[in-house]
Design brief:
Blueprint: E1 2-11, H1 15-33, E2 35-42, H2 46-52, H3 58-64, E3 69-74, H4 84-96, E4 101-107, E5 125-131, E6 135-156, E7 161-181, H5 184-200, E8 204-209, H6 215-229, E9 236-241, H7 242-251, E10 258-261, H8 263-276, E11 284-288, E12 294-298, H9 315-327, H10 331-347, H11 361-374
Parallel strand pairs: 1-2, 1-3, 3-12, 5-10, 8-9, 8-10
Antiparallel strand pairs: 4-5, 4-11, 6-7, 11-12
Helix pairs in contact: 1-9, 1-10, 1-11, 5-6, 7-8, 9-10, 10-11
Bound molecules: nicotinamide-adenine-dinucleotide, 3-isopropylmalic acid (IPM) and manganese (II) ion (MN).
C-alpha cells in the first residue's frame, strides 16, 4: 500500500480548524482508494514564533526538501507585526522551494452562490497562474529620513544573484521605497507553464500587466510573453491591463480560460476571483515547483476574527487537499474529493455561515468524509 508522508503546517487563526477537516477528508479518500496518508505536524506560526523566536529555520527548510508536498493552513496573527510571519514563514517557503507557479482555479461549483447575477458554473471556470517568486514580492526596500545614504540590496536565488547598490540623496522628511524586479528566467518559465496548461485546456491564454505605466518591469513581461507565444501558435492570446481585468472578471468571466499574471497583481485578482466563485471559503491554491517540493493551501488567510469558533468554511482547504493528492499522482482520489465537495453542496444540508447555513467547520468536514466513505 502506498504511503505518503506529508508535512502539515496548520499555522494561525482558522488554519488549524480548516486543516483538521482537510486531513479528515484526505484520510477518508486514502482509505477508499487504498493508500495511506502519514501527517507530520509542524508547529510554525505565531505561537511558535512568540514562544521561541523562530519563524522557520534553514534546518527545517532543508528537512522539508525531502517531501513532494506540504499542506499549509494560513499564517498571520494580530500579536505580530504585519509581514513578519507572512514573509518569514510563507514567502520563505515559496522562495526556498522555488515554487514559481501559484495555481489558483477560479471555478464556481454547482450549487454555490455567486454575487454575479446571471452567471453560473459554465461561466465561471478559469485558472489563474500567478508568478510566485518575483515582482514586488522579492522583499527589497527600505526607508530613510532627510540625508544622504547608501543601501545595498541582494537577491540570492538558485536562478540568479542580483545586487543593487543604491545611492540615496533625499531632502524629503522621509521616503520609503520597494524594488520590484522580474527576470527573464523567472518570467519565461511561468509563462511557458501557462501556455502548456492552455494547450490542455480551452486553448486561450490571457496575460495581465500594467505595461502602460510600469513600463520597464511589465514591458519585459510583455516582451517575453510575445516571444514565448511564438512557440504556441495554436493558443489564442490577449493582453489585459490589471485594472481592466478586474472589471472583465466581474462582467464577462466566461471569456477566460488560463490567466497568467505577475505576482502582486495575481494576489489581488485572485481574491476577486475567489469572491465570484462563492467567497474565500471556496478558493484553493497550489504553490508548485514542477521538479521539487510543492505546497497546497487555501488562498484565504488566518481570518483571526473566526479563530477557535468552528465557523470557518473548510472547503477551500479540502479542495487544496485534492490538488495535493493530484500532485502525488492520486488523480482518482483527488476527483473523489472534489465530487464529494460538490455532493455536500448539492445536498444543501451541511453549510457553514458563509454558505448561508449554520453548520460548523467540523460538520462540513465530517459530512464530506461521510460522502466519500459511503460512495
Ligand atoms: P483573510 O483571508 O484571512 O480573511 C478575510 C475575510 O474573508 C475574513 O474576515 C472572512 O470574512 C473571510 N474568510 C476568509 N476565509 C474564510 C473561510 N475559510 N470561511 C469563511 N470566511 C472566510 O484575510 P485578511 O483578514 O486580510 O488577513 C488575515 C491574516 O491572514 C493577516 O495576517 C494576513 O496577512 C494573513 N494572510 C495569510 C495568508 C496565508 O497564509 N496564505 C493569506 C492571506 C492573508
Ligand atoms: C496569498 C497571501 C499572501 C500573498 C501573503 C500572506 C504573503 O495574501 O497567499 O494570497 O500575498 O501571496
Ligand atoms: Mn492574497
Amino acid at each position: 500500500m502506498a504511503q505518503y508522508k506529508v508535512p502539515v503546517m496548520a499555522g494561525d487563526g482558522i488554519g488549524p480548524e480548516v486543516i483538521a477537516e482537510g486531513k479528515k477528508v484526505l484520510d477518508a479518500a486514502a482509505e477508499v482508494h487504498g493508500f495511506d496518508m502519514e501527517w507530520i505536524d509542524y508547529p510554525h506560526g505565531a505561537d511558535h514564533y512568540l514562544a521561541t523566536g523562530e519563524l522557520i529555520s534553514e534546518d527545517i527548510l532543508r528537512e522539508l526538501e525531502q517531501y513532494r508536498v506540504i499542506y499549509l493552513g494560513a499564517v498571520g496573527d494580530d500579536r505580530v507585526k504585519p509581514g513578519v510571519l507572512e514573509k518569514g514563514i510563507l514567502l520563505a517557503m515559496r522562495f526556498h522551494f522555488d515554487q514559481y507557479i501559484n495555481l489558483r482555479p477560479v471555478k464556481l461549483l454547482e450549487g454555490v452562490w455567486t454575487p454575479l447575477k446571471d452567471k453560473g458554473p459554465k461561466d465561471i471556470d478559469f485558472t489563474v497562474v500567478r508568478e510566485n517568486t518575483e515582482d514586488f514580492y522579492i522583499g527589497i526596500g527600505g526607508s530613510t529620513k532627510k540625508r544622504a545614504s547608501t543601501h545595498e540590496l541582494d537577491i540570492i536565488r538558485k536562478l540568479y544573484k542580483v545586487k543593487f547598490d543604491l545611492d540615496i540623496d533625499s531632502d524629503s522628511d522621509e521616503i520609503a521605497y520597494q524594488i520590484g524586479m522580474i527576470s527573464r528566467e523567472g518570467t519565461e518559465r511561468v509563462i511557458r507553464y501557462a501556455f502548456e496548461l492552455a494547450q490542455t485546456s480551452r486553448g486561450h491564454l490571457s496575460s495581465v500587466d500594467k505595461a502602460n505605466v510600469l513600463t520597464d518591469i511589465y514591458g519585459l513581461w510583455r516582451r517575453i510573453f510575445e516571444e514565448v507565444a511564438a512557440d504556441y501558435i495554436d493558443v489564442k492570446t490577449d493582453f489585459n491591463y490589471v485594472d481592466a481585468i478586474t472589471m472583465w472578471f466581474v462582467k464577462n468571466p466566461e471569456w477566460f480560460d488560463i490567466v497568467v499574471t505577475p505576482n502582486m497583481f495575481g494576489d489581488i485578482i485572485t481574491d476577486l476571483g475567489a469572491m465570484i466563485q462563492g467567497g474565500l471559503g471556496f478558493a484553493p491554491g497550489g504553490n508548485i515547483n514542477p521538479d521539487g517540493t510543492s505546497m497546497f493551501e487555501p488562498i484565504h488567510g488566518s481570518a483571526p476574527k473566526y479563530k477557535g469558533m468552528n465557523m470557518a468554511n473548510p472547503i477551500a482547504t479540502i479542495w487544496a487537499g485534492s490538488m495535493l493528492l493530484e500532485r502525488l499522482g492520486e488523480k482518482e482520489a483527488a476527483d473523489t474529493v472534489v465530487n464529494a465537495i460538490e455532493r455536500n453542496i448539492k445536498e444543501g444540508k451541511v453549510k457553514t455561515r458563509d454558505m448561508g447555513g449554520s453548520s460548523s467547520t467540523s460538520d462540513v468536514g465530517d459530512n464530506i468524509a461521510r460522502i466519500i466513505r459511503e460512495a
